[in-house]
């Protein structure tokens, strides 16, 4: 077994164990178990970082596969989670980040090679901006989604005056999850806008026009408008709580459709099947 294959298998095992142990720790309300889950995920993230570095050293950017970029997205998602966990101490978001990172990493192993005639002199600027800013934005969007789901669950319990039981007793306040939504939206929307803008510039250079009416472009524009709506309403109208949480969940769902449904099943420049 080669070193890269060994690293790949190690990442899958560590992410899988981190997810399972995290679930077990939440259900049993054992803090030591959830800490162990965090360390398993951190270890997987460290090995994941090594794999990305080794791939970069082994190949040029032009030779990178679409699977590699999916692995970068998986890595970016966990990076954002760790930053939010470090700043806000909301370990509960791991239940969203770890499983999604695992699924993205596994799916990356089945994606074909990128075929691109993009000029090497330009790819370093616009392509890097496009990929990097979008991946960080999607990581933030995932955290807003996770925080939104927990907010809606806890909010329903409180409004119905249901007695909190199990892991729900250990959940932070509603305000803590709303704060995650706020930070993720305020940081994520500018990054998503930068990613879209650089992508259109890249597309103009690659295909001769910024907008080609590609399905991916159309869905991404819808995502941008919803993201802009959430950003504006939080910033200008003071949106908080349930409305912001619901829109964040729908925004993430549409993004998943864009990433999976469009990239896999529709004719697009971004297809994972070509």
Automatic annotation (TrEMBL):
<feature type="transmembrane region" description="Helical">
    <location>
        <begin position="39"/>
        <end position="57"/>
    </location>
</feature>
<keyword id="KW-0201">Cytochrome c-type biogenesis</keyword>
<feature type="transmembrane region" description="Helical">
    <location>
        <begin position="6"/>
        <end position="27"/>
    </location>
</feature>
<dbReference type="GO" id="GO:0005886">
    <property type="term" value="C:plasma membrane"/>
</dbReference>
<feature type="transmembrane region" description="Helical">
    <location>
        <begin position="69"/>
        <end position="86"/>
    </location>
</feature>
<protein>
    <submittedName>
        <fullName>Cytochrome c assembly protein</fullName>
    </submittedName>
</protein>
<keyword id="KW-0472">Membrane</keyword>
<dbReference type="GO" id="GO:0017004">
    <property type="term" value="P:cytochrome complex assembly"/>
</dbReference>
<feature type="transmembrane region" description="Helical">
    <location>
        <begin position="91"/>
        <end position="111"/>
    </location>
</feature>
<dbReference type="Pfam" id="PF01578">
    <property type="entry name" value="Cytochrom_C_asm"/>
</dbReference>
<feature type="domain" description="Cytochrome c assembly protein">
    <location>
        <begin position="71"/>
        <end position="266"/>
    </location>
</feature>
<keyword id="KW-1133">Transmembrane helix</keyword>
<feature type="transmembrane region" description="Helical">
    <location>
        <begin position="219"/>
        <end position="237"/>
    </location>
</feature>
<keyword id="KW-0812">Transmembrane</keyword>
<dbReference type="InterPro" id="IPR045062">
    <property type="entry name" value="Cyt_c_biogenesis_CcsA/CcmC"/>
</dbReference>
<feature type="transmembrane region" description="Helical">
    <location>
        <begin position="131"/>
        <end position="154"/>
    </location>
</feature>
<dbReference type="InterPro" id="IPR002541">
    <property type="entry name" value="Cyt_c_assembly"/>
</dbReference>
<feature type="transmembrane region" description="Helical">
    <location>
        <begin position="244"/>
        <end position="266"/>
    </location>
</feature>
<feature type="transmembrane region" description="Helical">
    <location>
        <begin position="189"/>
        <end position="207"/>
    </location>
</feature>
<dbReference type="GO" id="GO:0020037">
    <property type="term" value="F:heme binding"/>
</dbReference>
